[in-house]
Amino acid sequence: MAVLQMQKIHICALKSNRKQILEELQRKGVVQVDCLGEEDTVFQKMETASMRSGYEKRAQNAEAALKILEQYAPEKKGMLSSLEGKKEISVDQYYDQVKNHEGIFRTVNRILALERHIGEDRAGQVKAEMSLESLTPWMSLDVPMNYRGSRTTAALIGTLPGAWTLEMVMTAVAAQQPQMDALTIEVLGADRDQTCIFAVCPQAEAEKLEDALRVNGFARPALQTSLTPAEYAKELEKTHDEYAQAENGAVEKLKALAGERENIRFAADYYLLRAEKYGILGTLLQSRHVFFLDGYIPSKNAEALKTKLEGKYNCQVELEEIAKDEEAPVLLQNNGFSSPTEGVVESYGLPHKGEIDPTGIMAIFYYFLFGLMLGDAGYGILMTVGCFFLLKKYPDMAKGMKQMMTLFLYCGISTAFWGVMFGSYFGDVVPIVAETFFHKSVTIPALWFVPLDDPMRLLMYSFLFGLIHLFAGLGIKGYMLLKEHKAMDFFCSVALWYMLLIGLILMLLPTDIFASMAGVSIVFPSWLSMLSKVLSIVGALGIVFMSAREQKNIGLRVALGAYDLYGATSWLSDVLSYSRLLALGLATGVIASVINTMGAMLGSGIIGAIGFTVVFLVGHTLNLAINLLGAYVHTNRLQFVEFFGKFYEGGGRAFTPFCAATTKYIKFKEEN
What we know:
The chain contains 22 helices and 13 strands. The relative contact order is 0.13. It is α+β, with helices and mostly antiparallel strands and 672 residues long. The strands form 4 sheets. Strands 2, 3, 4, 9, 10 and 11 form a 6-stranded antiparallel β-sheet that branches.
């Protein structure tokens, strides 16, 4: 478990080598660029925001084109294709493809244009369909919609709100114009929303008729055409078909471009890399001929990078040690056993200056407690075999996914171990199957004990494991204090608490309360009983008088010390938190047993075997999923709250190198 030692790196180079050096650093991915210099009359920073946003826009367009292709020409992928990782290419292959990036981007624009055309064609079809629908009540009309009548007669075509009968319309007109009798009205169609009418009257009375109808809400139709509704409907159908054909043609063109998918993926990553490079370029101080770059680099990579840059380019590289009072960015490095739990530490917070990396010791407890919570050999074997298979089949999966798979691989091994210790193999499936289908009594004995038969025993061991976990956290705090040569702080903040807590534990063990819980009576010799009291008293008094030792006022010092001593109650709650080891362990076993019992209820025949298989597969899949999530969440909680709370603050700044790892589809082959 370690935090990598960092150094500062300063690069001064000719601007003629700027592009090559930045791309070299981006491929290496070992330098966090951190240029904090001020501009002056000689050294200025470039304005790169427009270039950066331009490349970001291109990258977004490429991603949009990929989504369009996926919509119209889906790529055939396996269920686990997301684990395959990025396509690996060499530097030479990268630059060969870069030469064609403008052609690829023209393809991207063509895809976007085709998608826009498809949208327009679909909108045209919808508009035509809506117009056709609006024509439905007018289909019996055999004159154009804009027909106004002849030389001697006037025609009114329009709608009245609501449902009207011919008698109702005639009555309404008569109520407004009782003297008008040269009038013909036809109801063309009606529904609850509107009534379509066609009215004819002498030209001299046209205005009176329209006024009489308008009083009742008459309105001329929005559609005004020189065609009859039937003729116009045919035109609309023709237009609809033309839009549909245009849409189909655009879709076929899109499908024909599906072969460009890989090139577009490359372009998306290329533009992303260019955008990031211009983002860094905008932070560099530059004169007419040279530029400066400052940053951080892991010490293990520093000399090799310095040698390569100075040997390959006309530049000067200077390495500098980090000042003692400077907070350097943090990069963790752990072995294969511990590194899968780095994500747990990072999600809580990276260690700040002076703190140790807790990943290594936390990993031991993490796997141990996770397996204890799940505690079933069948589930553990499934997890182990499944994760091992995926890791071997997809060696190039993303780093975060690989860490997660490895984490569950080790958790699966721990789960299988505890399952063997507790005699749990998919719950009690072995005796259930043997009894139901073979009418024999077969059991696999537990190597330790069966928690369902003796839950209090598991509870006591849960508290014991919790105490070990908490004491380890307090011990790490003591180690950090001694490492910083703070012997008095170690004595007051660690040693005195060890004395108090160990003394209290020794006082508890011989009591009737502990005997009733554990089912075991413990009798200490008198000297050990006396020692427990001495440790408790000395520890308590030491905490009261020494925890606030910087205070000169004796009364305030004792008051603050007494308040610190009250913190012993938090230790009790922390220890009780480990009862979740019992709760989750029993939940897994009980649910598994219930599933097996339900499966066996159909008997021993063929139907019973089929039913048992279905119940077994579905039930145990759900049980594993639910309790796997529970074990993961609660194991994290025990680390974050109980373990880290004893010594760890976090808050370190993550090391974020200028690198090509942000790409989505490609990665560079490792250079020798």
